Amino acid sequence: AQSVTQPDIHITVSEGASLELRCNYSYGATPYLFWYVQSPGQGLQLLLKYFSGDTLVQGIKGFEAEFKRSQSSFNLRKPSVHWSDAAEYFCAVIAGNMLTFGGGTRLMVKP
Amino acid sequence: NAGVTQTPKFQVLKTGQSMTLQCAQDMNHEYMSWYRQDPGMGLRLIHYSVGAGITDQGEVPNGYNVSRSTTEDFPLRLLSAAPSQTSVYFCASSYSRGSHGYTFGSGTRLTVV
């Protein structure tokens, strides 16, 4: 069965600093991979997705993610974090007909 | 174009009561899913549907029923509510297998006392 692991439950960064959120997946075939963001009390918004091709994908709000098959990873990055980026971030994989989520990483931004 | 609409937004139930969470989408999406979100556990798939008349179980289906009589609607039924079903429930829909990403509703916060 497929699974998604986000090793970091909480991360705190200073405003303007760079950010990397980790995601590891377990799936036998080439996965469809996603990053979603959830602001407090809100639903989930799609940041970016990877299906095939270029392993570095660009998303909304200045985020990017890199697919590394050898490491089974799909880490999310942003070069300079803004206070409005404080939220919970979820990595997800589609395997078969099911979208499976990791446990999430809560990002806090220090002024 | 309303996207994915969930009702109600909040609900309090007594143990043993039944209720239906409503989910409707107006994007003609084939795929629809129900998730529950609990602290530290991400979102866990309850049931999903790949089209009208077709449903299947996800990771945590026990205590929940679904049906898909139309493309637009995918209600989730709690048969006999238990405190362990206290959670935030999200409905999501997607065109095809989700290659364009899923669209999520704003959620239903359910408390079972």
Labels describing this entry:
heterodimer, A: 111 residues, globular, B: 113 residues, mainly beta, 11 strands, 0% helix, 50% strand
Commentary on this structure:
The complex is a heterodimer of chains A (about 110) and B (about 110). Chain A has about 110 residues and is mainly beta. Helices cover about 0% and strands about 55% of the residues of chain A. Chain A has no helices and twelve strands. In chain A, the strands form three sheets. In chain A, strands 2, 5, 6, 10, 11 and 12 form a six-stranded mixed sheet that branches. In chain A, strand 5 and strand 6 (about 45-50) form a beta hairpin. The model of chain A has no long low-confidence stretch (mean pLDDT about 90). Chain B has about 110 residues and is mostly beta strands. Chain B contains no helices and eleven strands. In chain B, strands 2, 4, 5, 6, 9, 10 and 11 form a seven-stranded mixed sheet that branches. In chain B, strand 5 (about 45-50) and strand 6 (about 55) form a beta hairpin.
The sequence of SSEs of chain A as H and E is EEEEEEEEEEEE
How would a textbook summarize the main sheet of chain A? 6 strands, mixed
Would you count the extended β strands of chain B for me? 11
The shape of chain B is globular
Tell me what portion of residues of chain B adopts beta-strand conformation: over 45%
Please state the overall shape of chain A, judged from the principal axes of the Cα atoms. Answer: globular
- Sheet of most strands of chain B: 7 strands, mixed
Overall pLDDT of chain A, averaged?
92
Which pair of chains forms the biggest interface, and how many residues does each contribute?
Answer: A-B, 23 and 27 residues
- Rg calc of chain B: 13 Å
What percentage of the residues of chain A does DSSP assign to strands (E)?
A: over 45%
Low-confidence stretches of chain A: none
Number of helical elements of chain A: 0
- The rounded distance between the terminal residues' Cα atoms of chain B is 36 Å
Distance between the termini of chain A: 41 Å
Output mean pLDDT of chain B. Answer: 94
